[in-house]
Structure prediction request, 403 residues.
Amino acid sequence: MTRHVRTADIRGASRLVVDATIGLASLVETMHHNILRTPGVLGKATQEPASGITGFVYKTVRGVTRLVGGSIDAVLGRLIPVFDGEASSQEREAVLAALNGVLGDHLQAGANPLAIPLRLRRGGQALELDRAALATAIPAATGKVLLLVHGLCMNDLQWRRKGHDHGAALAADAGFTSVYLHYNTGLHISTNGRAFAAQIEALLQAWPVRVEELAILAHSMGGLVARSACHYGELAQQGWLRHLRKLVFLGTPHHGAALERGGNWVDLLLDASPYTTAFARLGKIRSAGITDLRFGSVVDADWEQRDRFTRSRRRCSVVPLPAHVKCYAIAASIASRRGKLSEKLLGDGLVSIASALGEDPRGRRNLALPKRRQWIGYGMNHLDLLDRSEVYVQICRWFSEPQ
Prediction:
């Protein structure tokens, strides 16, 4: 039996309501305080709490909210072991994935039960990285291992779209054993990359048969997570990189996504006036994973000791593709044919063609992928990369190339 809602979900949602109420009270208090000060339109804003009776009221609201929220949390915590044994539904998994994409860092920081832990899964079930357990869970395991890494606000089950799953198809057509990463896309890409590298190392050490080949197929943000894993795996001298032969990117924003850069400009404009500065906090709710997509950050140095919402001329670190690994990139365009203006302006609707192919006109961050390892699909959007037959045909061609 599957369940759409669990007791842990209600507990996690109640915590979010408490956090939202406290945050909203603080936002309104900031706006109230700045209006009472009557600064000029472009005057200096303040984040200080209101004083006097006004300040007392807002402080009381926050205090009562925390008290009530704590009581609800304690009761629901006792009910979780009783009611949460059933399997999760695909609808529930999709909602959790979207929520984690937007608020995942906040959920993890508050130990919210809605936060998704990073795990390797098959069929929506977490794999125990022990040789005997893997032999039981994957009795027909082959020596060709394929890891699939999903994108922002998605989960491992969503590799199946319109009846097609690249992983299942490659298992049937090319003899791969497919394993899927499930992770909190709201965390920093480098945080997920480091954890993913450790999981791959544990998986291959426990794999029930001799590993002949390892390949990674990654969609959207998943490609950045895979690149980050390769970077940290190399730094830690992990053995799994010796088995990695091919890495295929599907619509990965190697140089960032314009949508997040636009969101950063909105933050800047809202913060320009004391009358709107409180609302800038709403834009800053978006997760660390989303802000990493501004320029395609894959290492800790890009965000450590920095305000990720502050606009800066500093760009993210240059991280080359892993050496001795054949890397391939597929981009999509909503334009019906090559040469249309929408091809360059919109790309697949989320990621430009240049970013998906890792091309940088200035050369600083150019991934230098050979043309034979690039492919562009026309008349398709970002999600169409998951199920279009022509995309799968191209993936098969690359996977059939000699190592």
